[in-house]
Amino acid sequence: MRKTSDGIGNSVGLSPVGGLAGSNLTFRIMEDLGIAIVTGHYSEKNPFPIEASLCEKYSVSRSVLREAVKMLTAKGLLSARPRHGTWVQPEQNWNFFDPDVLRWLLERKLSYSLLIEFTQMRMAVEPFAAATAAQTAGAREVAPILHALSRMTAAEQGDDDPLTSDIAFHVAVMKASGNRFYEQLCDMIDTALRISIRMTNQLKGVRQASVADHKKVADAIIAHDPATAQQAMQVMLDEAMELIVNAQRQSHGEREPLLVPAAE
Predict the structure, then answer these.
(1) Residue 15 in 3-state DSSP?
(2) Structural domain boundaries, residue 185
(3) Could you give the angle at which helices 112-136 and 139-156 cross, rounded to 10 degrees?
């Protein structure tokens, strides 16, 4: 059994593909090969194996293997051409918005730089999603936000999961904006938050994020106050960014924290 990391130092085992069938087998091979590519086991310097070799390794037909390769090609990890073989693409060609690719990147090793880039993306989107939700969301759109907030409150008492309830809140705000482009980002944000939230909570020394801070966002959305909703979300993200940047500084032995520029 091969192993990878969950992004914050915990080992995660990868099951062999034997015993699976149909599409499950295809997805399992895709997962195994995707992790091998992202972790550098296969790269431009260590070429991707030929089809016959992989079919033998996984004990599968060419059609099953080709489907897995096709999925990895769609994610930007591979380039396959008839009579030219299959090649690993450089990292800049990978689709970082694909939840699988992002998960593999976050799980391969602790990367403060990747978390910083992800948080920068969140800072460019989530405050505006909150502001838009405050302008346009009705009772039906607000209900999932309040449900997630209720779950976070229950998690404080040990009656719910602090991670999934926090993620549910941020995803609910994105969806409440009514922006279809924001909604397309929800799976990617869900995936990355599973590492990011655990990391920032660990750095703060708390079990879960502040319910009160999240309630400020929810209250502003309900009150149709876009400026306050945007600011409340921005404050949370600024704190997350500062925690990650300071941790990166400390990991490099630097004492002075990097100041995150204030939002304009």
Answers:
(1) coil
(2) 111-251
(3) 130
Of 36, 66, 93, at which residue does a domain stop?
A: 93
CATH of the domain at 14: 1.10.10.10
Stated as kind and residue range, the H or E segment containing 199 is helix 186-204
Give the end-to-end CA distance of the chain in Å, rounded to a whole number.
49
| Residues 214/236, Cβ–Cβ less than 8 Å | yes
The secondary structure element, H or E, covering residue 79 is: strand 78-81
Task: Characterize the bridge pairing of strands 2-5 and 11-14.
Answer: antiparallel
State how far the alpha carbon of 182 is from the alpha carbons of 16, 106, 177, 187, 219, in Å: 36, 21, 8, 10, 21
Number of structural domains the chain divides into = 2
Phi-psi region at 78: left, alpha or beta (left = phi > 0; alpha = psi -120 to 50): beta
Name the helix (H) or strand (E) containing 167: helix 162-176
Instruction: Answer yes or no: pTM beyond 0.85.
Output: no
129 close to 182: Cβ distance less than 8 angstroms: yes
pLDDT at 41 over 90: yes
Question: What would you report as the CA-atom Rg of the chain, rounded to the nearest whole angstrom?
Answer: 21
The per-residue pLDDT for range 74-86, each reduced to its tens digit, is: 999 999 877 778 9
pLDDT in tens, 171-213: 999 999 999 999 999 999 998 898 889 889 888 888 888 999 9
Rounded percentage of the chain residues whose pLDDT exceeds 70: 87
